[in-house]
Amino acid sequence: MSTLAAVRMPARAALARLAHLPREARDTLFLLAVIAFTIAPHLLRLPAWVGVMASAVLAWRARLALVGGALPNRWLVTALLVLAAGLTLWGERTMLGKEAGVTMLVVLMTLKTLELRARRDALVVFFLGFFLVLTHFLYSQTLAIGLWMLLALWGLLAALVLAHMPVGRPPLARAGAVALRAALLGLPLMAVLFLLFPRIGPLWGLPQDAGARTGLSGSLRLGGVAEVADDDSIALRVRFTGPMPPPGRLYFRGPVLSSFDGREWTRLMPTFPVAQRPRAEIRLLGAPLGYEMVIEPSRLPLLPLLELTPDRPDAAPALPGWLFTLRPDAQWQADRAVDERLRLRAAAWIDYHQGPTAAVPGLADLVRLPAGLNPRTLAWAAQLRADPALARADARTLAAAVLEHIGRAGFTYTMQPGAYGADAVDEFWFDRKLGFCEHFATAFVVVMRALRVPARIVTGYQGADPEVQDGWLVVRQSNAHAWAEYWQPGEGWVRADPTAAVAPGRVRAGVAPRPPGGTVAGALDRIDPQIARQLRVAWETVNNRWNLWVLNYSRGRQFELLRALGIRQPDWQDLASALVGLLAAAALAGAGWAWWDRRRQDPWQRLQRRVQQRLAALGVDVAPHEPPHTRATRVRAALGAGGQALAAHLDAFARARYGGQALDRRRWWREFSALAAPGAAGTAR
Prior knowledge:
This protein is of the alpha+beta class. The strands form 6 sheets. Strands 9-3-16-18-19 form a 5-stranded antiparallel sheet, with helices on one face. It has a 4-stranded antiparallel sheet with strand order 12-7-2-17, with no helix packed on it. Strands 1-5-4 form a 3-stranded antiparallel sheet, with no helix packed on it. The longest helix has 29 residues, at 572-600.
């Protein structure tokens, strides 16, 4: 016997056993499976003891259903509830709030299964389950969670339908079909409420995603960007209203860092008065480039906009409820952390000059270096400056010389450069020559400062996926990048990307290093890399549409819908009127359908009422609830031999109604009406 056959036999035996379980046990097991499916996503973020308790209780209740055992007494259930409350209070330090509330709801849901003694108990479980479905969206509103909860809702509706079905053994498929039909009937009402129900913050805001990651930060330590290079999650999406710029010019500007302690870059604390600090003087060249961007939550108060987006009414980003400002270092700042998905429009000039054209005292802060560190690099810079050809060179010429050295000195661009010591730049510049983008940018800025040229680090994202997804370019966390800026008199700040000198494909093509795939992705890559890419693109495209059309359906979009319907200046009153009007129309349509459905259902009942009226005219009293056989007996008793034909017709009616025999109702009624007509032969007393 093969191994596969050996596995199939116990599986078939288990299915056969389940098929012959009593209905109560089968329905209980189905409900327990639905509950486990519903609470499963919560167990990934709740304390471990919740998962242990929920699994143990559900398994215990399933065993009781299989063996027909008695349910535990209420004292034991109460003791478990008190234990869960104590653990919740110990872990959360409160019984209020989202985490404690969801924890107790999961515990109550599972413990209630130990009290399924009557339909009332089952109804409590059902409606706890419906409420539990909603709580998942307090943590995440992704498409995956939406689909998972849709299946959970269908399972709960099917269990509810089973609880209201009559005695017998209705199949699960029938209950599932009824539940699906009920859900489909509710779809139009759901769509109306989604489109027109007022969006009131913060009820409609996105949940704060505790798992939000970003390749950006308010600081940069050597190796920091390399650590997020294997993060394939999406940082932002962008699409352009005009021609798409080359990948090598896609720089999305994040924090600008100017203070260096030898290991880490941070924002500069200026030592000069405000009037003497470098300003964000911007001179734009060429035509603007309009773009739309969707920024994923980052928990940082910044916008990584396309470089360079100016603070102009026709270019600056704007969103209701948000305040965005352009810092002096040309980085866009938000008034609070970006803990929700933002969709905005802006315009950028990829050809520009920014910064002061003449020297100001504040630039002296940007040539400072930590004392006593990297002596070999400082000596190398002094030697470079001593070259007669560079003795009087400007900043641009010096930068070109440093970049040329990086390109020809045997440096290697790698995602795993390893740890560096105290004199990290010396070790990188002379010994190991292994680094990621932050190593090259740091070394470049240190050398430029040693040459007395103001320079600084800029972090952000560079490039995007080569494939366009549904019209959008996708920028991932693995596109996180660090580059440099140096100050050129008469021009301002000039971008220099030292990574391009050693890995030009990374910058010119704008493609981030490919991180290693997970188990499933890796298996697909080994089978067919193209299939893996197509599957990922398809899923991310669908997820993006979910984000844009569902999660980002805002008050502004509601007003746009009303304008499309012909309302010139819509407001809340118009929105409420449209909602009430549609709901009233739906209610009237539902009432009309119910009236029509009531009239059309069971034509046998309507025929029974007409028969009763005709018999009453002949003096035969019958009750509305009496079946045709009883009526035939009353006809024989009241009319004697003259009523035999009428009674025979009623017997034929009974055989067709309850025996499944064929009967033409219209023909039967014509014949019965003729026999029951006043004065007809055979009906006289």
